[in-house]
Design a protein that fits this description.
Elements: E1 5-8, H1 13-25, E2 29-34, H2 38-48, E3 52-55, H3 58-67, E4 74-77, H4 78-87, E5 93-96, H5 104-112, E6 116-119, H6 122-139, E7 143-145, H7 148-157, E8 165-172, H8 182-185, H9 190-193, H10 203-211, H11 213-226, E9 233-237, E10 243-249, E11 254-258, H12 264-272, H13 303-314, H14 318-334, H15 340-354, H16 362-381
Parallel strand pairs: 1-2, 1-5, 2-3, 3-4, 5-6, 6-7, 8-9
Antiparallel strand pairs: 8-10, 10-11
Helix pairs in contact: 1-12, 2-3, 4-5, 5-6, 6-11, 6-14, 10-14, 11-13, 13-15, 14-15, 14-16, 15-16
Length: about 375
Amino acid sequence: MVKTISLLGSTGSIGRQTLECAQRLGIPVAALAARSSTARIVEQAHKFRPKLVAVYDEGSAKAVSVALSGRGIRVVSGMEGLLEAATMAEADCVVTAVSGSVGLKPTVAAIKAGKRIALANKETLVCAGEIVMRLAAQYGAEIIPVDSEHSAIFQCLTGRGAGELKKIILTGSGGPFRGQTRAQTANKTPAEAVAHPNWSMGAKISVDSATMMNKGLEFIEAMHLFGVTPDDIEVVVHPQSVIHSAVELVDGTVIAQLGVPDMGLPIQYALTWPNRCESGADKLDLFSLKHLTFERPDFENTPCLALAMDCARRGGTAPAVMSAANEVAVGAFLRGSVTFGNIYEIVSKAVNALGSVASPSLDDVLAADAEARRYAENLLDER
């Protein structure tokens, strides 16, 4: 079990559940970090008494500093603040739950500091997977996935030899619009898109689940985490979300990880690995399961998934461009500026217009991310 954590993205859904887990396990919190969310991070700081609070937004950081005055908690801001939270000596584990590419630099810094990374920030591996995994090997940093699917694959592969894996079976529920056509979903509202049938998640990831972009991002993550090619991963729609993912071994054996849809379980495992302990999660009751079903992805009606898998094959900076444009498009959708159907339109235009840099450096990735954001914002301005 880790001794102390630094939590990046403490105010989001994963961050809040991580704090619940840390409290239950008795793990101290050395640092809290968030983009903004002033009132919530102040409340968390009062409860968990970290040494450091980092708030990315400068204005919010000033408000947090005033609210925590006299508490003996240092408040820092901007990217430098996130980097400090990611590398502080007191924490042996950094939980990267901050959303978006803003989590990339802090994760790299934590890796170079030799921390265990409990990775919940998808964009880190989507945008710079080859770079991140190479650095982790170089600096001896453990990367333990927090995503339920990648945690499941990680657990299924524990103790397996390098040559035993034949195929990764990446499962997904299909989201709230499973079985509906693009015409039927084109004008779905944000409220409908975030109403996931099985999981309690933040707004952005819930919309990504509705478009199935989330499964595409996880497809790219799995490539890098487990050192496989796109041809070694099969996406399977599993509406019940009981099998969180599986692996097929070379002898034909399939090993799956089952459990209730509760993010507290993979969060806890990332903090206690390689050990296990009691959790606060409900237990899976096999007798209550009437059936488990599996479907092939409907690429025609979930084009974001197809686009992400194509970007995985293109490689280079294509995934970074896609991820950044998607972040802009989903944000606009949640604000009511574009329709649900416009999300794919914006992202695909960015990917096709901006191309890809092969074998990118970290600076290339960040430049591609910035260019894609500008391009997507310009598309929004033209509407």
